[in-house]
Structure formats: structure tokens, C-alpha cells
Amino acid sequence: LMEAEDDGLFIAILKKYFANLDAPLYPNSSNPKARNLTKFNELMLVAFREFSMITNDTVEDQRRTHQLKVVAGIESFSKRSALRNLKSTGAFSKDEVAVIYDKYYSALYYHQRSNEKKDTRMEMATFRRFLASLTEWANLTRDEEHLEREGPKSSGRTFMERLFQYFDKGKHGQLSLQNCVSGLDELIHGDLSSRLKVFFDVHDIEHDGSLSKDEIVQVSETLLFLMRGDDDQDDILASISGFINGAFQFSQSNEQKADGTNEHFNLSFASFSEIIHGDDKLRTFFERDFPESFNFSERPVDRQKHLGREIFDDLRNDGTRFAQVGTAQTSTAPRPTRRSSSSQSVPTVEAEPMSKKAHARSAEAYRDAVTASGAVEDTDDLEEDEGDVLEEVNQLLNEFGHDEEDV
């Protein structure tokens, strides 16, 4: 155990050890008592012989001292396990994926109510919170949220819903951590052409490989939403106006009326890409400004803050559970014979004589087995060790007030 450097290896060693506690200690002994003795008896003897100074108060004190560290360690272990299970992390670095993990589960945690079942997949409302923790353009102002509640959906919310649907490759209506990592990687780390293709597909609601007149208008509204924080609003309006005019100029008609007017406008991806490349403001936005709007760094103070509520809830839940168990035990327990302390509100039952007798029986059984096993062993080292063990067993029996008639 001292040589284990990985949490998984440490746990595996413990599981293997406890799984073999029922194994016979001396399977080849000719003495029936020795053959019936298991490694559990040896464990109990070692526990009372080597660690008799460890009391329940010692354990409780150590739990209180290290509880926050343990809870944080469990969170860290779960995080490493989840990151290892990701099929692909794209071009994200290890630290960036860790930040995405923190933001993802923080959005899940703070969006769920206390009485709801915890889920590892996020819905649309949680996805909006998740995006808002990564980029400023996803943060709606109070005025924008008020307009959303009073009227139709804003262009920003519509864009985020379509982005959610684009990330949801399996069409499950929910996103996993892998969906978010893969979707963000495609949106951020691709070249200009692939990023434009994502933007084009997000607005291609009919999935026919072209943008209709209404979809072109929605693209312009999305651009206004994403670039609303730019200081050069006049240049932005001019660029978006030029995009709309260029889109209608490049659009091709699949069907014409008898009078020669266009009934349907369809903008292909090639034309869409050409229009964006022809405008310096829009090209710079998709090439640099949009991917750089995502922040995958975390301030040192935020690295521990996201654990605060989780740790508090863990402590509260544990306290509630222990209180319920203590209440149940108090209602069913016999009348106590002695209180351990006048300051304790819950009485404790005096069970010390029974414990001594049980310990004495275990130690006596172990001593008998060692004696029987020593009869069939023929090495000098074993006999010497056996004598030491027997002496320690006798000391243990004397300490617990063992009487031969009680065994």
C-alpha cells in the first residue's frame, strides 16, 4: 500500500485483501481448529495487538480533520476518471479539458434543484449557463432576458438552441461531456472554412444544403447578437448590411413564377463563404474574434470555489444521514447503564464486558490454532515466531481479563 502511487491501484489492493479474509490461515494443518481459522482472525489479533491505542474518538477526530480534503479528493478522482473516459479531446490541452469539465458539472450542479435526481447530461437551459461560463456573448443582459420573457425568443437564445441541437449528434435531446468537448473543438479549433461550415449548418434548419431567405435573415440577426459587444457598431452594421445584399445577389432560384420573379432564395455554402471572405470585418470575426471569445483559463480563486457548495451539501447530507441513524438506534436500543459524558445528548450503551469477552474468544482461538499449527511446522524460525505470538496472545488475554471458563 505504501508503494502505490495511483488511487485505483490503492483501492484494488484493499479490495483484493478484504476479498480473501475468509481464506484459511493454515489450510494444510492436521488440527481441525487450525484449518477453521481464517485470515480474519489474524486481522483481529493484529488490530488489537498493534493498534489498541486507536479509539473511536481518535477516528472521529481524524474524520473531522480530513473530511474536506477527502471530499475534494473524491471530486478530483471522479474528475480524472471522467477525463480518462473521453473518447476524444480534440485539440484541447489537458488543462483546457479540465476547465470544460469544471464548467460543465458546475452548470449541472447549480441548475438542478436539491430534490431532483442528479444527472450527468445537460438540457438546453443548462447548456446556456454552461456557454455563459465560457464566453461573454452568451451572457444575456437583464434587458435581453426581460424581452425574452415578454416577447418572442431573441436571436441569441435561438442561436444557442440551434448550437445545442448541432452538438447533439445522437438527437437525444441532452448533451454529454463528450458532446460538448467535441462540439467546442469543432467550433473553435477548425480553420476558417470549417468554422464557416459549422455556422452555415447551424442555420440550415431544413438541412437541404442551402440557406433560404428567412435563414439568411436569421444569420444576420445572429451576427448582430454575437458582435453586439464590439465598439465599432457602425462598421458592424455596414458589414452585416453588405452580407444581406450580397446573399440576395448570390442566391439562386430553384423555382420561378410565371412573371419571372424569384419565389425561393437559396444561398449555397460556397456563396456564403465567398461573401464572408469578401468582408474584412466578418472575416476577422470568424477567423480570430469568435474563437478567441472563449475563455478556457480559470482564476486560482475559482479553482476551489466551484467545490464550495458541493462540499457543504456533502457535509449536510452526511450529517442528516447520521442523525437519522442515531435517532433510529436511540428508539430501538435498550436503556443505557451509563452515560459516557454529561454533555452528550444521545446516551450510549455500555457494551465493554461483551467486547472483552468477544476479543478474548478471538484471541484464544488464534492461540489454539497457532499451537496446533506449530505442531506440524518443522522450521526453527516458525517456532521462534510462534513463541512470540503466543506470548503476545497471552498478554492480550490478560489485558481483557480472560478467564479459561469463559471460552
UniProtKB/TrEMBL annotation:
Q: Which parts pass through the membrane?
A: none
Would the keyword Metal-binding turn up in this protein's UniProt record?
yes
Where in this chain does the record put each EF-hand domain? 191-226
SUPFAM superfamilies documented for this protein: EF-hand
Keywords from the UniProt entry: Lipoprotein, Metal-binding, Myristate, Repeat
Tell me the superkingdom of the source: Eukaryota
User: What Gene3D superfamilies does the record tag this protein with?
Assistant: EF-hand (1.10.238.10)
Q: Which InterPro entries match?
A: EF-hand-dom_pair (IPR011992), EF_hand_dom (IPR002048), Recoverin (IPR028846)
- Residues covered by region (Disordered): 318-386
Return the Acidic residues bias intervals.
Answer: 377-386
- Keyword Lipoprotein listed? The answer is yes
Ranges annotated as biased composition (Low complexity): 327-349
The text of the family note is: Belongs to the recoverin family.
Protein known as: EF-hand domain-containing protein
Species for this entry: Bifiguratus adelaidae
Q: What taxonomic classification does the UniProt entry list for its organism?
A: Eukaryota, Fungi, Fungi incertae sedis, Mucoromycota, Mucoromycotina
